[in-house]
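Page 47, continued from p. 46.
Same chain as before, 775 aa.
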Amino acid sequence: MSNQIHIIQNAITTTISEIFRGDFRRICEVKKAVLHLEAIYFCHGTCYLLKRENMPIKDQLALYQRIELIPQSTTEFFENNRECIINNWPEESALAAKPEILYDALLASEFCVQPERVGYKIDKVSRDIAGAYYTSSDFSAQITYRALESYMDRKRRRAIDSDSFACCNEYENITFLDYSCGCGEFLLAVIQYFDNHVLGYSRKKLATQLRGVDVNPIALMITIARIVSAVEAEDDENLLREVAKNFIVGNPLLHSDKIAPLEVRFDNFALNRLYAETEGINCLELEQQNLVVLGNPPWEKLRFEERAFFRPVCPAISAISQKNKREKEIKKLAVNWLELLEYYQLLQDDYASVKKEIPKHPLLKVSLVGELNTYAMFAELASRLTEKDGFAAIIVKSALVTSTCYSSCFRHFVNQGSLSEMFLFDNREKLFQIDSREKFCVLFFGGEHAGGIKVHYGLTKQEQILSSVPINVTSEELELINPETGLLPNVADSKEFSFLLRTHRSLSVFAKEFPKCHFGRLVHLTAHAEHISTKSEKTRVPIYEGKFIEQYDNRFSTFAGMSADERYQAKASARRQPGDSFVAPKPAPECRYFIDKKFWESFLDRYDQPYSLCWRSLTSPTNQRTMIASIIPSMPTCQSVQLLQTTPVEDLLMILALFNSKVFDFFVRLKMGGIDLTQSVVRQIPVPFREAWNSMVTLHGVDYTALDAVRALERLLYRNEPDLCGLWDGVPEIKSADNYYKTAADVREEIDKIIFQMYGLTSAEEKMVRNSFKA
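Result:
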């Protein structure tokens, strides 16, 4: 397939270069021309499916224009540039390839436009904006089979005889919708299901029951041709027209009573204006009885990614990490490349406008929380559309059911009774070509849910959706496990779920045992950029970063000895400082950023304690350790650090021991829904009751309360940290400690033993926790 892609990319690049004669400053016109060329090529390519590949190209375009799949402007573009297009026409072998595979491969590259050159580069800016990561045909078929079997079970329409073939007339009133259909894998899977499991049903009739929506007109063109080909009606233009009228170019997250002309929506896609007001469709017309929604909607954040926008057109601006410096360079475009500046402002306006308009959507309410994510909105849309005796099966990020910001949304899905089944996947096997650490799930809305929701944990292979055995989870159990959010825990299997449930039934939670904690984040490097400098001056205070923290170590890493390029590059890493702070002192970390002292003092009214317990906010359940915490004196910390302050000091030391323990960390992993370890996760972690801190433990022949033993061990860990001397008043010392502990790891293990004892775990449970941290 790579050879065919190169052929098409070379044809597009050469044709565009000749049409614009080497001057590509009219960036919007260039991008529209690229989409016109793609439409012409795929119009011809899909005609192979329709057995019309020998028709003149002009007639092929006329056919697609009649059924409103391409605008008149594409035909005009062809006529105006006919000679150039024909002279650079790709080899037929490339265009004759399977269009869905060819187009998916084409989306893996970005057409880069710069003032004096154009060409393709491996990148995914446009793909990310559209969320165009298509689902494999096998996975689509497996989800569709499981969904339709569940739907028909619920409606008791399946035949009882041994071969399980259903009666045809039971399906006549069902409509099948994919509202982000891409190249149509889920709709083709419906046809496959009927071929295999519904004898005698009219394939042409079924084709007219399929509906689709997508922002991408090329993808819809491919989908419709594939459907007509799959039902073997290639010569039936009336059916082609009837199928095509059930497909809409537009964005279902934008509601509009009046749909814009196809040419406008076509141009929107060419310019990545997927949230332009003119992308809206009448979403209420999608709502009907007996509707089955299937699909894999986009998983993108609804925000304008400025650096990503500039990457293919102006890499120098994209490379600037600091927003205020980047803004200065963007303003220079008014002189250097006005057309790009106007295009940039157009997209900015789209995103600013859509955030005001989306709350008016008649079907979106509970998913409009925090930083808007498309997968949450599409999930709510599926739930609302199928309320009238329908069913939905969609793929979304697992954060929708595990992340704090979606608490009210998830509770709505659970309590209104529409969410019936969940299949939770890890992406370790790269089912999707995204980060292997990403988690996703398949949600079923509308099935049987008496007594709870069926949850399938720990899936890694697509075929497991057909064979996995669920556990039944009730809303009462969810409220016990996560009392503040009611979310699904991030467990791997039923064994972990049972352990978590038992622990919550026998212990307290952090929020109840430590109610006086004041949580927060302090300095934001972007939001507070005007008060921040990279220069150290008397009027500025250094900003402490999460990179500097390790468990019981405030001096883990530093930027000392690193060049400016190394320090300030995107996702820069600090250098680990050698040695063990328990054995010998380390120098203080050298910081990258410094904040105005007076501005920093404005924070101190709200955070007035001398010490803060800090932890790395950006982390992951798949890291070697997820919770990494230490106590530091009051100072500016950036957004990669979460902190809490509390009184008395004894509480701060108790919390530190809990945070850095393996058992607390284990529960953090079961509660985290993303990569941001927030206070809402911490507040719901199970912890021992206060009385447990008064239980007796023995260290080297000396009896202590658990609290005194832990504080004495923490004092040892920080013995080379002069900034924390005020913590140790009244804390006992362990005599001859160097005879027992050679490294910080030895001391941490001693604290772990005490915390395990306080949690009251069985030996099998402790073994399970410890084994989860083995490399």
